[in-house]
Amino acid sequence: MDLDLKANMKMKINITQRAMEFLQRTKKVELYVENIVVSQCCIPLSTPPSVRKGRPRKPEDFYAYDVEGITVYYDRNLINKSELTIDAQGYGFVRGLFVSDWVIKY
User: Fold this and answer.
1) In whole angstroms, what is the distance from residue 87 CA to residue 100 CA?
2) Which NCBIfam families does the record associate with it (predicted)?
3) Are residues 34 and 52 in contact, defined by beta-carbon separation less than 8 angstroms?
4) How far is residue 103's CA from residue 105's CA, in Å, rounded to a whole number?
5) Mean pLDDT for the chain overall
6) How far from 2 is each of 7, 8, 59, 91, CA to CA, in Å?
7) Domain boundaries of the chain, sorted by first residue
8) Of 12, 41, 60, 65, which has the fewest Cβ atoms less than 10 A away?
9) By the 8 A CB rule, do 55 and 32 touch?
């Protein structure tokens, strides 16, 4: 499948050193940033997107970026941002990736 890199959207994606080390340890070269949909509540919730290792089930629903040899898929349903930073948090087996500069304004 030919993915359209940086199609229709210009965004700078940063991956921190901590996140890079985490990806190298887990031997992953792909990750995706996706919208979290909360449908079990009576009011809409604004939450930061989820960052998951690997390739999304439907890569055609994502923009694809190459960041230092890591393919980052960005959900087309998320708001357009000029810059995004992916970091790692946690310790041991409870370690994961997250978007560190996502701001929710009310």
Assistant:
1) 6
2) Moor_selen_rel (NF041239)
3) yes
4) 6
5) 84
6) 12, 15, 10, 36
7) 12-99
8) 41
9) yes
What six digits make up the tokens of 54?
Answer: 């690997």
For residue 54, give the amino acid letter: G
- Tokens at 33, concatenated: 């940033």
Structure tokens at 48: 């930061």
pLDDT in tens, 50-77: 999 999 999 999 999 999 999 999 999 9
| 20, 72 contact by CB (below 8 A) | no
CB 97 within 8 A of CB 30: no
Contact between residue 70 and residue 15 where contact means Cβ atoms under 8 Å apart: yes
Distance of CA 75 to the CA centre of its chain: 8
**Gap between the Cα atoms of 27 and 105, Å rounded:** 35
